[in-house]
Amino acid sequence: MRGRLRVSAVLAGVVCGLAVVAPVAGAQVGTGPWKSWSPGFSEQERGCGQISGLTFQLTCSTGSGDQRAERRYDTYTGGTHQFEGSFKVTSMSGTRISVKQTFRDGSNAGPYFILGVEKGGRMYAVEGGQTLASGATVGTSVRVNTINQVGSTHKVYINGSLKQTISSPGGSYYDKFGSYRTSSGAGPITVQWSGVKFWTK
Asked: Which branch of life, at top level (predicted)?
């Protein structure tokens, strides 16, 4: 009986030990340590853009004008900032829609990195046209991470794999996501986002 008690105690200790060393939940990529960050945001609905929680729609097939439904997060200057979120296209009869942007602010305000999605699931960098990945088909969840080390590099990860590294000039930036008609695109589209997190270091 004492032997059984000793075995039970050992097993309990092993289980407790495993619980202690289990990794902290979090899917962020890149070398840490990272600190959680909670920037504020505003919402932008223009043209036929509509927002409901984390669902972003373009309800029209208009191929011109400002058609957008986006969240725009607070501006940051300097440092290293990581965005993470998962998007799922739930319906799409249009094509070439922006779903995530890293935007420059301040005196150099303007588009910097734009992740676009085509009908059929191709994901590409709108600035330059580089194909980054495939698989953003209707009903499929895709995780996106961007790491902007201001003054050094901006990196894009799709489902945890590094897909693009470009130079990051010094200055101010902010993150946006949702659905936005690119200059060559049109809706309709419905995009659902989830698991949105930010880190800095």
From this structure: Bacteria
